[in-house]
Every structure is written in C-alpha cells, then in structure tokens.
Amino acid sequence: MNAANFRAGDRVRLVSMTDDPDPIPAGTTGTVAGVYPQNGWTQVDVDWDTGRSLMLSIPPDVVVLIDGMPTTQALGD
Questions:
Q1: Whole-model pTM?
Q2: Nearest to 31 by CA among 60, 17, 51
Q3: Which one of 1.10.1220, 2.30.30, 2.60.40, 3.30.1050 gives the CATH number of domain 10-65?
C-alpha cells in the first residue's frame, strides 16, 4: 500500500524504522493521526499504542495496514 493512501484512523503495524536514534520497536501497532505527502516521500503521524507519538518517513520507514481492535502494547511485550 502506498503511504499516501493511509488515512487518519487507519490502524498500522511497524515493520521497520531504520533511521531514528530512538526507534519504535518493530511490531508495534498504532493509529494514523495524519498523512502529509512530500516531494518523493510521505510523512505519517502515528499515535502508537505504547503511548509514544512519532512520525514516520516513508520511505525508508515501513508499516503495514492492519485490521482489528487497538492493542495497548508492542507485540512480544
């Protein structure tokens, strides 16, 4: 799915975040708060279920759209 197709309220699961000094762990789920297309990339504001709010830069960050109820912690915790 193209990042520009995400919409506020979509549920996502992080696959990878490689270019951040304090990344969100892979597998963490969250809710898209906003989508901001840029020239050649997309900024996606996510309210993570762990309580953090950290924007994604796609690419290089990778998330997938998920279905289901919100979770309250990262997968594997």
A1: 0.79
A2: 51
A3: 2.30.30
